[in-house]
Amino acid sequence: MVYKQFEGVFAPILTPFSSRDFSIDYEFVRRHLEFLNQKGIQGVLVSGTNGEFPSLSVEERKNLISWVLKFRGNLKVIMQTGTSSFVDTIGLSEYGKEKGVDAVLIAVPYYYKNINDVGLIDYYIQIFNRIQLPIFLYNMPQVTKIKITGTVIKALLGFQNFLGIKESTGLWEETKYYIESFRQLHVFVGNDILIKQSLDIGAGGCITAVANTFPELLTSLLISLKKKEDVQYVQQQLTAYRKLLQQFPLQAASKYILKLRGLGISTVRPPLQDLSESQKRELERGLEKLGFNFQEENISF
To answer: Before 270, cis peptide (omega within 30)?
Structure first.
């Protein structure tokens, strides 16, 4: 099922840090939100993987969502509230509801790796019973080492606020399974390479890395799909950009691209590392091959 209020392109926004003291650069966040609004996407995800959420304190996550909601413009806002702490996950979700987020996305409690389906089901039932917000689950087992299985999803279908899942394995067979097996849910595609084929079989939208840096590619694809136009070329571009990003540390590369696009300098927070000078040059060469014109980027905020 496609829930219209969450249809379309969502950017999993980066959390920019100052190179001076690794504090959050809130003005960069404001510029990024304005940039995304200008490019016509539908919404943002705050404190996701691209946003380096494990490196943020609970207080920082609260401050960040408050800031995003202040400068959201026309964007829908989904807050990723998952932690390894049951109490913190509920607290963040309640804070998001109080401040006015449109939905929450909840990752699995990722520290303990031997969680079985029964334990995971109980974890989510306790949260669903307490949080009166639209809820999406976040499936990214390549990082968490915990998969949200069909058994888990089936056990939660009775909750009216269970809207869907962000499927981020990047594997077509996995993505196809969630879309085709759970038609009552809204499935966000988490990999740019799979967008067209996922939307073709019923996905509700996408939350993907390229939406941060080249959102116009995503909006172009969705507009063309609605007009029933050929989108093969746009999807090929998306695939090429995503494959280029995957050659580098994702968050660092995305932040460097936003610098090239005129949004300013930001850094990642340890233990992640910024791109080396040689990596920056390699990324620039890759962007040039894909037709990115550095001279055209003259953005003013």
So the answer is: no
The one-letter amino acid at 294: F
Q: Which two tokens stand for residue 27?
A: 């003005």
Per-residue confidence at 296, pLDDT binned at 50, 70, 90? low
Residue 300 has pLDDT above 70, yes or no: no
Residue 279 tokens, joined: 């990596």
Helical residues (DSSP H) of 145-231, grouped into ranges: 150-156, 172-181, 195-200, 210-213, 215-226
In the residue annotation, 145 being an active-site residue is answered as no
DSSP 26-92: HHHHHHHHHHHHHTT--EEEESSTTTTGGGS-HHHHHHHHHHHHHT-TT-EEEEE---S-HHHHHHH
Residue 3 annotated in active site? no
- Using the CB atoms, write b or e for 240-269: b if 16+ within 10 Å: bbbebbeebbbbbbbbbbbeebebbebbbb
CA distances from 150 to 121, 123, 280 (A): 11, 16, 41
The catalytically annotated residue of 70, 111, 233, 243 is 111
Residue 119: which residues within 8 A CB-CB, separation 6 or more? none
**Please, what is the Cα angle at 25 between 107 and 257, to 5 degrees?**
80
Q: Is 177 a catalytic residue?
A: no
- Asked if 49 is an active-site residue, the reply is yes
| Nearest CA among 78, 100, 70, 81 for reference residue 3 | 78
Architecture label for domain 4-227: Alpha-Beta Barrel (3.20)
Catalytic option among 76, 81, 110, 138: 138
Taking the whole predicted model, whether its pTM rises above 0.90 is answered as yes
Task: From the candidates 62, 166, 176, 255, give the one annotated as an active-site residue.
Answer: 166
Q: Answer yes or no: are the C-beta atoms of 35 and 299 closer than 8 Å.
A: yes
| pLDDT tens sequence across 242-268 | 999 999 999 999 999 999 999 999 999
